[in-house]
Design goal:
The protein contains 22 helices and 23 strands. With 779 residues, it is α/β, with parallel strands linked by helices. The strands form 5 sheets. Strands 14-22-21-16-20-17-19-18 form an 8-stranded mixed β-sheet.
Amino acid sequence: MSVTNDPYFFQEEEEKINLKEVAYKYIVHWKWFMLSFVLALIIAFVYLRYQTPLYTIHSSILVKDEKKGMGGQDDLLKQLNVFSSGKVVGNEIEILKSFTLMEKVVQDLNLQISYSKVGKFRTVELYETSPIIVKLIEPSKLSYSAPIKVVINDTKTIQLNGKEYPYNTETVTPYGTLLITSTGLSPQFSNMLLHISTIENAASRIVQALEVQASGKMSSVLNLSINNSMPQRGIDILDHLVKVYNQAAIDDKNQVAANTLIFIEERLKLIADELTLVEKNVEDFKSREGITDISAESQLFLQSVQENDAQLSEVKIQQSILASIETYVKTKENKSGTVPATIGISDPTLLNLINELSKLEVEKDRQIRLVKAENPIILVMNDQIKSLKSNILENVQTLKENLQLTLIQMEKQNLRLEAMIKTIPSKERALVDISREQAIKNNLFIYLLQKREETALSFASAVSDSRIIDSARSSRIPVTPQMSIYLIFAFLGLAIPFGTIYLLGVLNDKITSKRDIEKATQTPILGELSWTLHENPIVINNESRNAFSEQIRGLRTNLHYLSEGKDVQSILFTSSMSGEGKSFISLNLAASLAITGKKTIILEFDMRKPKLAKALELESSKGLSNYLIGRAELDEIIIEVTNQENFFIIACGGVPPNPAELLLNSRLKVLFDELRQRFDHIIIDAPPVGIVTDAQILEKQADATLYVLRHNFTPKERLEQLDSLYKESRFKNLNLVFNGIKAGGRYGYGYGYGYGYGYYNEGDSEKKGIFSRKGKKTT
C-alpha cells in the first residue's frame, strides 16, 4: 500500500470527505424532511384559510406649500388674501395623523361600533353588508365591556344578549341608550356580534394603522395609506379624513374674516342709525326754513368741508383700529387669540407683522392639538409671537403719532373752512353744517358697506390649501396574509428537521463517524462493518455475498497487514463497554477464517456473561474455567461447531466467581501453547477492557488486538482511554474495528448495522442475546 505525505492531498481529501459527511448526515433523513415539508404546507393552507385578510387603501393630496410651489391661484383670490398662509408639509403630516381629526372621522362614520357574524372557525367583520345600524346615544358602564350577542328575529324586533328590543326607537338598554335601525338587507345569518368601543380607542387604532408620507423631499404631495380588513371602510376613512382636514383648514382661515365681519356689522349698525338721524335733521331744517337750494359758493365750501371731514373720519377709524390692535397685543400677552380687523390700515410693515402674527396664531392652535403646551415647539412659537407683538406695538405707536399729526392738520383745515363758512348767510351756513354731517356719515357708511362686501366675498371664497390628487382606492389582493406565507412555512418545514438533526448531532456524545475516531486517537482502523439484519449467529458462509459478509472477508484480508512477514495466529477481541458487537464479530471472523481451510478455534473468555455456546446451541458441561482449575483436559473442552468445517469452540464452562484471578493461573499459558500447535488461528472473545482487567491479562497470549467501536453507541469519551492504551502500547498490534455503521456514519455510503447485546449492565438494561433465533435481529 502506497502512502503519500503530501499535506495538500490530505487537506483536499479531508475537505471532500467533510462535504460528503455533512450531506449524507441530512440526506439519510429525507423522509423526515418530506413529512415536515408537507405538514408545513398544510399548516400554511389552514393559516391562510382562516386568517382575516387585510387590504391596503391608498390616497394622495397636494399641500400648497409656498416653499415648494403653491400651484395656480387666481389673482382676485390673492388680492382677497384667501391663500395668505403657506403650509409646512411636515406639520400637515402631523395634523392628518392627529387624534382630533380622527375622532371627528370616527364620530361621523360611526366607526366606534362594529359588526361581525359568527362563523364555524372565525368571525367575519361586516360593514356595508350589515343588516342593522346601531347608534350609541348615551353610553353606560356596560357599553364598552364584552361584545353583545345579536339575534335578528324579524323586521320589528331584535335580541341583544337574549332580550328583545324594537327597531327605529331610542331604547334604554344595559349597554346604553341605543338607536337600532334596519338597513333593509336580507341577512343570510341570524347570529351576530356587536362591538362598541370608545371614540378615543377607535381613533387610536385607526391612527396606528394610518401612514402619511411625503412622496419626495422636494414634493408637497402626501401619500396616505391604511390597512383594513374591509376595503370600503378603509376608503371611507381616508376620503372622510381628507374632507375633515380640508374643512378644518377652511375654518382656520375664516377666523379672521369672521371677526372682521362682526366688527364691520357693529360699525354699520351704529353709522346707519346716525345717518338716519342726520338725514332727518336735513329734511326738517329745509322744511322749517323753506330752503330748496344754496348758492354755488356755499356748494363749494360744503364740498371742501365734506372731503376734509371724510378724510378726518378715515383717520379716526384708523386710530380706532390701531387702538384695538394695541389693546389686543397688550391684554393677550402670550396667549392665542384672533387678531383684530385691519380695514383702513395701509401701512405695509404693520400689515405684514399682523399677517405673520395671524399665521403663528393659527399654527400654534394646530400644534397645540398635537403636543402639550410645554413642548419646545410651542415654547418657540410663544417667543416668536411675543417678539412679533412687541414689533407691532412699536409700529402702532409710530402710526398713532403720524395719525395724530394728520388729525391736527385736518382739524386746523376744518377751522379755516368753518371761518369761511361764517361769511355765508346764517340759513345757508346752518344748512351747510347739517349737510356736511350728512355727507360724512354717508361716505363712512358707503366705505363700510364696501369693506363688508369684500370681506364677505373673501369669507365665501375661502378654499383649502390642499387638493385631492387621487381619491382613496383599495388593493385587489390582500397584503396580509400574503402568499409568501407558503414560502415561509416551507422554509420552516425544512429548517425544523434540519435544526433538530443538527441539535441532536451537537448534543450527541456518541461516535457518529470515522472522523470522530480519527480526531481523538491515532489508533489505526483495520475494518469497518455495516449495520444489517440477521437471524443466525453466523452470517458468513461459502455462498454469502451480502455487504456484511464482504466486509468480514475484507477484515480477514487486512489481518495480514498487522505483522509484516508473520501470520497473526492469536487475535484478541475487546471493546470499551458492553453492546459494541465484539462477540458477534469475533464469531463471524472465526467462521470466515475456517472457510479458507484454516483450522480456527474461538475461546469464550467472557466468563462473566458467556453467550457464544448458548447462541450456537452447543451443550457443554466443561469449558475454560474447568480447564484452568485442573478439572478438565483440553480434548474434553474442544467442541466442533455444527455444520462448520475447521471451526471449533471452547466454551466458558461453569461461571467462576473470580474470573480475573483464574486467568492468572499457569495453565493459561499451557492452554495457548497447545492451541498454537493444533490450530492455525485462535480467536479470543474477551470482556470489555473499559470495565474489567481480563482483556489486559489475555493480551499476553495474543499476537494482535482488535478493539471494537460501535457507531452511534460508543461514547466519544471512551476514545481518550483507547488512545492512551495505544500510545502506551499496552496491547500488541492494537487496531480498531468500526462496527454498526448506519447511513452517514462512514462518509455517507449507507453501510451500518445494529444488534442487541447486553453486557454488565453498564448503563444499559440487559437485552436478549445477539444470536437469538426468535425472529430477525439487527446486528
